[in-house]
Amino acid sequence: MIRIDAMWLAVEPIDMRAGPDRLLMSVVRVFGAAQAYHGYVFANARATRIKLLIHDGFGIWCAARRLNQGRFIWPAPGSASPLPALSQAQFDALVLGLPWQRLEQMQLITRV
Q1: How much is the pTM?
Q2: How far apart are CA 20 and CA 109, in angstroms?
Q3: CA–CA distance, 87 with 90 (Å, rounded to integer)
């Protein structure tokens, strides 16, 4: 498996035709550099598709995912970019299309 120490979210939408080189250029522009063992997540304007770029210390990996129905929960363009690193649980929820920003709130039941 590929080691990933941190996962970062790029808020601004990207054209999903972008390949690894163009995504890497965007990472350098938005984040300043592509750090080894870090992953960078991008979405299209409709938030129906995401791409993940990972720098493994030797090269880059690119993966894509789309939902058959619905949209990924994505921050609005123009909000704080880049966002803080996602936890593993947040990333797992994000790729399933779940509300990853509210994971801590969802772990407590306060009303019956």
Answers
A1: 0.82
A2: 42
A3: 5
